[in-house]
Structures are given as C-alpha cells and as structure tokens.
Amino acid sequence: MPDRDGAPNPNPNPDKPEKPPLLKKSKTIADKTPTVAHFPGPLFPTVRRVSSTPLSSPRFSSESNTYSAPSTSTSTSASTSVDANFGFGDRDYVYPSFLGPHTARSRVNVKSTSKSQRNQLELSKLPARSESMPLNLTSDEGGAKAEPKMKPKPKPKLKAERDLNALSIQVSNPASSSALSSESSTSANSSNARRASGHNSSWFLFLLKFVCTLSVSHTLYLQNEVSKLQEENVSLRRVCSHVDLASAGITELEEFNSLVYFGNADSRIVALYMVVFILVTPFVFYKYLDSLPRIIDLLKRKTTKKEEVPLKKKIAYMVDVCFSVYPYAKLLALLFATLFLIGYGGLALYAVGDGSFTEALWLSWSFVADSGTHADMAGAGPRIVSVLITSGGMLIFAMMLGLVSDAISEKVDSLRKGKSEVIESNHILILGWSDKLGSLLKQLAIANKSIGGGVVVVLAERDKEEMEMDIAKLEFDFMGTSVICRSGSPLILADLKRVSVSKARGIIVLASDENADQSDARALRVVLSLTGVREGLRGHVVVEMSDLDNEPLVKLVGGELIETVVAHDVIGRLMIQCALQPGLAQIWEDILGFENAEFYIKRWPQLDGVPFEDVLVSFPDAIPCGVKVAADGGKIIINPDDRYVLKEGDEVLVIAEDDDTYAPGPLPEVNKGLFPRIADPPKYPERILFCGWRRDIDDMIMVLEALLAPGSELWMLNEVPEKDRERKLTDGGLDISGLENIKLVHHVGNAVIRRHLEGLPLETFDSILILADESVEDSIVHSDSRSLATLLLIRDIQSKRLPNKDSRSIPLRHSVFSQSSWIREMQQASDRSIIISEILDSRTRNLVSVSRISDYVLSNELVSMALAMVAEDKQINRVLEELFAEEGNELCIKPAEFYLYDQEELCFTDIMRRGRQRQEIVIGYRLAAAERAVINPAGKSEQRKWSLDDVFVVISSGK
C-alpha cells in the first residue's frame, strides 16, 4: 500500500519484516555475517562467494571511491536491521562491468584523477537510489566513516583490482531494467560477431594444420630414407672391405659420389612433392575460392557489410567474356593447357623414373602427341603417370579437333550465309531485292557482253542460298557476268564495306515491295548510309523511287552523286505516250534495253568544228541525236540546230548497237530531192478511260492536259468515292478548275465486275488504260490478276458491240488464232480500240502478249532497263527525263507520207536529211508488213523502195 507521501510501499505486509532477496546462484552467503562483494578479475572465475573482508575494508572507504548516499527518514526499523548486515555480494545487481548480463554499465577505462574529483564525478553520474537498496551502505553526507573491526594485513593489489578501484559502482534499480536489456543484447551481438570472425578463420587454421602435417610427414619420410641410405652404405663397406679404401683420394671420391647420389634423390623427392602439391592446390583453391575476399578483409581488419557476387561467378563471367570477345582466346587456352600438361607430366615422370628431367619432358611430349607411345614403359609408377599423361593428351587433341571443326564449320556457314567479304573493284552493286532484279541482271549482263562479262554484287536482307536459287530460276545466260550474293543490310556500314561499296563503279538502290512512302523512306536511309562511307564512293548512285513527291528530298541528301528514277512516274508517262501513239512501247523497249540500240555519249576530237547537219550523217553505224555542250556545264541538247558547230570538249549523243561498234567516217553523198511538205495534222479531241486509281494519277492528268486537244474527255472508273476524288487530286497538286483541254467524268465501280463495265460506252473510247490499282499495288500477283481480268472483260464487251470486219482485213499477225472464235473477235476489237495494260510481273506480260488482245503490255521490265542504262552512264538520265516529259523533245511515230512519195527509192540517209527539214531526227522505221520497228538500221546508204504504209520513228521537238 502506498505511504503518506504517496510512494508505493515496498513491503505490502507490515506485520512481517522484509527479507533480503534470495540469491540466484550462490547459497554460501551467511545471513548475519557481514560480507562484502568479491570482484573477480581476469584471473578469478566469475562466481560469487563470501568475502571475509569487512565493510570497512579500504576497498569501500572514502579513499577507494565508496558509494555514499544521504540517509532518509522514511526507512523502517526492519530495513535498517537488515541493511546493517548487507554486503555487496548479497545482491545480484552489484556486479562489475564484465560479468555478463547483470552488469550495470559498460566497462570503461578511467584516467587517474584526484580523490575529490573522482568522488564528485562518480556521484554526479550515479542514478537515484532505489527504495529496495539498503540505507546503511554509507553514512550521511559529512558523517563519520565506518571503522573496521580489525585492520587487515596489507596485500599487494593486482592490476585488475587497481582498475576496479578506479571505477564507481553503479547499482541498478527497477526503472533501469530496459537499459540492462539493451546492454545485454549489445553484449550478445558482440559475442556473435566474435564467433563469426572465429568461423571465418577456421579455414586458415585448417590450412596451417595441413601444412604442419605435411611438413612432419615429409620429415619422417626423409629420416626413413636417411636410415635406409645409411644401411646401404654399411653394406657397401662390408662388400668392399677387401679393397684398400684408406687413401684420401678414394675417400674423397666416395664422399663426392654419395653427395651426388643424395642430391639426386633429394631432387626427385622434391619433384614428387611438387607434383602432389600442384595436383592438390587447384581443388583446395576451388573449394575455398569464395572465402578469399573475406580472408583478405580479415587480414586487412576491414569488414564488408554489403553482399558481393561470389568470386567463382566473377571468374566464370570473366572467362566467358574473354572467350566471346577475343577470337583467339580458345586457341591460346588450349596451347597453355598443352604446355602445362607436358611440363607437369615431365615433372611427374622425373619424380617416379630414373632418367633426366629433359628426357622426362620429351617422353611427356611423346605421350601427349601419340597415345600409343606409353606402352613400352616399365614399372608401376611410370606406367601410371604415362597413362594419365596420355589421357590428358587425348582430351587436348579432342578439344583441338573440336576447335578446328568449329572454325571450319563457321567458315563454311559464313560462306553459305553470305557473310564473307567481297574483294572486287569496278563492279555494279545492287542494294535490295525486288521483282525487277531478274530483268535488271539480264540487262546488266547484256551491257557487259562486249567486255567479256563483269561482276554484279547483290546485297539484300535475305539468305544467300535463297537469292542464288531465285537467280538460278531465271534460266538466262549471263554471258560471262558473275553474280555474287551477300546477305546483309544496306543500312549498316559494316555490311556495305563487306561488298566493297567504295570501289563500285555504279550502285543501284532498288525500291522495296512495301508501301510507297515506306519504300522511299528506306531508300532515303540507304542514301544516308552511303554518304557516311569514309572512303568515299567512286561511282554514282541510282535510286529507284516510288513517289515523285519524295524525289527532291533524296536528291537534297545525296547531292550530285545521286540519280533518281521514279518508277511509278515513268510507267505512267510511258502508258500515256503508248496510248496516244500505238506501237511506241515496243520502240521504247528497244531503246531502253541493251539488246538492240541504246544511247551512248562519247567525245570525238576529229569532229571539232563540224556543224551538226554533217555530224548527223558522219556515223554509218550510229545515229547522232544530240550534243553535250562542254561550255554550258555539260548540258545535253537533244535535236540541236543544224548550224550548231561542235567545239573542243563537246561530246556527241548517239543511238548505237554498242559503245565500240561505231565511229565517224567520211561524209556520204546525200540526195535530198523533192519531197512532199505536209504539215502535221491538227490534234482532235479524244476520249480516254482510266480503269483503276493510281497514287500519282494527278501527274498523269497533268500530262494529258499538256498533250491532248481541247474538248477531250477523261473517264475514270474506280472504287474511290466521287467526293473523295477531288480532295485527293487537289492534295496531289492538281488544279481541277484550271483544266482547259480535258474534262473529268467520274464513275464509281469495280473494273473486274462485268456489270460495272457494261454501264460504260467502251466502244467509243480511243484509248483505255488499265492501271494497277492503289489498293493492291503491294501485291504484284493480285494486281496483275485484276488487270488481266479487266482486259478480258473489256475485250469481250467490245467484240460484241463493235461491227464485225471481214476476215480478209485481219492482219497477218492475227492469223495464228484464226481457229479460235473468241480470240479472233477480241483481236478484231483490238484493231478498233487501244488498250494499254499495266502489268508488273514479266511472266504475266508474256502470257498476255501471246494472245495479242492488247496493243502492248507495259511492265516493270521497262523500269529495270532504265535503271540499268542509268547505272552504266548517269548522263543518260538527263536524256530520258526530257523524252519522258510532256514538254520538249519526244519520241514519235510519223507516217511515211511526211518524207517521201509512194514507191520512191531512197536510202535511209536521204530520209534522215529530209527529216532535218522538219526539225526531226529519224532514228528508225517499221515496214508495213513487219511486226517490229527497226532502230538504227544497218546499211543506211543502201537504196530501197518505200511505201506510204510504212512509218518512221523520229525524235521531234514537239512544237
């Protein structure tokens, strides 16, 4: 119960006196005998026992830093009687600082100070006295000290006792229990840390034990060997006792031989122990490899708290990186293993054999190199060692065979996959893969025929074997031209260097089979990669573009080295020219391809100072078409004025069979004669039908606007809604309201549905163009299928609507199909109406051309021819651009009545002279009975009769 002051009463039962607390461990302390606590030092066990020293011992005097507290008036008589016999050993909370969990404070070292200072310092640090503590431990402040009953005999103080005298005794109370628990946990943690450090050093002790054991065993072994040698020496002395060995020389020789023998024996023993040590060390090192960082930290007295990657994993990772980065790391590792096996095996043979060390090394090498050499070894030890060396040699040679096999396989795979380097120069490099590649390779092979063949390198993101198989399917004789395929990306500089891009005389970048914008974006990235080649480019770059609007950006990036060919635009312009002039497509095929005549530009110094009208007839095997003016920055003038005189540096543009098949000759005699001067007939309005919607249809409309007469109509049949057509045409740059010569007539429908086609007046159109629809332009097969279906439907509808002709009026070229009624009807319809079909695949083109139901089938083969021609000579691109344009010079077909009379006998040179009177250059003709036109005919000076049904191919100024 609480007392008057409100403090809790430590004795709840006042009738019974308070008993001192029971001891936890020791029961040897008397209740009435005054005792004092025994403070064990480092030399005494940490147990409590009764001390015979009274309280008045000097250890508890004021001079020895005794604990003093003022007496209180609230203490009872019972407690006073108990406190009179109280000793420090009677309570558990009075302990030095090094006795475990019962300590009151940590053990510290206190510097020596004066007595008064120590007393004041300790009293200020002591906590308030607990009520459970006795009251008579010390006297009141300033009171007399307790006198001892008897004066003990002075004893020499130990160091531990002197340290304890310098410390104050701190008595615990119930309020400080939490501090005790925290201090006890700190002590436990420190003990755990000491145990952990002891565990870390256990392996070090194990290693020391192992070394000591090995040394002792070695010593015993040497002692045993010495005893054996002594016995052998004694036996030898007995055998040789009849010989006088007393002379000094013989004695010295015996001692020398014995020393040599012992030295030899010692070296073999050392070699044996070295073999054992080298054999055991890797296993021990591998076992305790992860403990090495902790050992280093222990030796450096440093503690690493963070968790690190085990050393085994680090070494394995370093070996993996080394083998991956350095190609010769495996070979060097194998070489080191071989040398190590030879050296280690030689040392082992030397230890167990009786030969020299050099002989042992040679035997070790023979065991490694030849597995059957060890069969002649004698003795258990040499045989065991030789078998082990042979086994290691077999393993090493197996690894060596594996490395060689892997290297050969890797080389073969690199060759098969097209990863090897191309060491070529002055070759044509093709970047990319498309359906135009077959016809492009064919044209390049024909172009290189005159020089015995060339080299064409193809770099594409396809497997080399697949590319070679596709090229082999072309079934074309390359006439000495080698086609080398490599697998890689044109966007990677390393792949470009592998194909010797800096040494190529021409580079062709093909458009991909993706969307037009994606294809042009990829072409732009390829051009950027080409401009990043440090060695520079020797040749020019021909880039196939899909959209005319993207051409300026590529030219801006590439600069003067870039020549662009817009395939879509070329096909569109050729289709319009062929629709307006039937038969022109075959002429373009002859001029663009290398099989017949093509354009060449060359300088002839002997023609300097000669006017163009004489230059025109100076080449018996070629037809001059223009002049490259050196004074005007190399500008090419097609169909120049007759009065233009060639100057120094000018070059002549001609149409010839090949670049080495023509040369200027003497001027022939030309008879101009009289010929009818008929002006070109006026243009009449035409009606044209477009089936399908192209991406650049706005550009085709602008070309028609420039070529057609006023009052012409352009009908468009496609699936694009009519309200969206005007928006697309306007976005393409077409001013619909500004059209003066043509009128747009819109019809919404599908060109492969007969019902939609029958709603159109197909028999009234002058020309019908079947376009590759934009919706299926990514699929060549699908696009060609739609074009073929539309062609057959239109011809069938026309054959039923157009009046039938007499069978005698069927041209000779159609007589092959006279037995087939539906084919003949379609051929009759083709005589009245012109249909130009845009066929992209050359295989489909061959099928349609045989039926002869279309005037001409235009395909991607013409674009391939243009790319090949520009790749051989980039100057030809200027010529093609002018001839394809809607303004300027153009390729035309003119009737014979413009140049001669019926059945007039003339040579081709005379007709060329007459053509100059019309500001035209006559480059060929087609006879009435012939199917094909002849460009750059041979025998230009030969006389022949001409008919008015014949036609001539000319380059006209277009005025």
Essential attributes:
959 residues; alpha/beta; six-stranded parallel β-sheet; 12% strand; elongated; Ion channel POLLUX isoform X1
Short précis:
42% of the residues lie in helices and 12% in strands. The strands form 5 sheets. The chain has a 6-stranded parallel sheet with strand order 3-2-1-4-5-6, with helices on both faces. A 6-stranded parallel sheet has the order 13-12-11-14-15-16, sandwiched between helices. Strands 7-10-8-9 form a 4-stranded antiparallel sheet.
Rg estimate, integer Å:
57 Å
End-to-end separation: 133 Å
Largest β sheet strand count, sense and barrel closure: 6 strands, parallel
Segments where pLDDT lies below 50 for 5+ residues?
1-19, 22-116, 118-191, 245-263, 805-820
Mean pLDDT: 74
Helix content: 40-55%
- Give a count of the beta strands, DSSP E runs of length 2 or more: 22
The amount of beta strand, in percent, is 5-15%
Total helical segments: 28
Class by SSE composition: alpha/beta
Strand order of the largest sheet: 3-2-1-4-5-6
Tell the overall outline.
Answer: elongated
Question: What does it look like?
Answer:
This is Ion channel POLLUX isoform X1. This protein is α/β, with parallel strands linked by helices and 959 residues long. Helices cover 42% and strands 12% of the residues. The chain contains 28 helices and 22 strands. The strands form 5 sheets. The protein has a 6-stranded parallel sheet with strand order 3-2-1-4-5-6, sandwiched between helices. The chain has a 6-stranded parallel sheet with strand order 13-12-11-14-15-16, sandwiched between helices. Strands 7-10-8-9 form a 4-stranded antiparallel sheet. Helix 12 links the parallel strand 1 and strand 2. Helix 15 runs parallel beside helix 16 (551-558). The protein starts with 76 loop residues before the first helix and ends with a strand.
